[in-house]
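Per-record layout

source: Crotalaria pallida
name: Pre-rRNA-processing protein TSR2
length: 114
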Amino acid sequence: MENIMMDSINNRNHSNILLQEGIMILLSRWYALQMAIKNQWGGSDSLQKSHHLAANIFSLLSKSNEPVPVEDLENLLHESMLLTFNTEIEDGSIEEVAEQLMAIHEEYLLHKSS
């Protein structure tokens, strides 16, 4: 019984690490966010603010055992870019990133349950 519990804990930890890495990689490739960081549109602590965004996304996705509606992810990304980085994104990338986050989350749910 103890081995089964340890396997479950290890699997959950591994799933969380994969989820965090997926979010970080995706955000590091998002041109609009990287421009906001590079140009410090959120102030001199723009990099830390991007880490905070990643943590918020991880928190939302890791706590949900069901797929998160794409609209919720789009709203989180839009509000963060607008309020944190003073940036209005109209190139469709918010929707693309939200869809990719959904795919990452679906993989996370599959991995977590196995």
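summary: Confidence is low (pLDDT under 50) at residues 1-9. Helices lie at 2-28, 31-38, 46-63, 70-85, 93-113.
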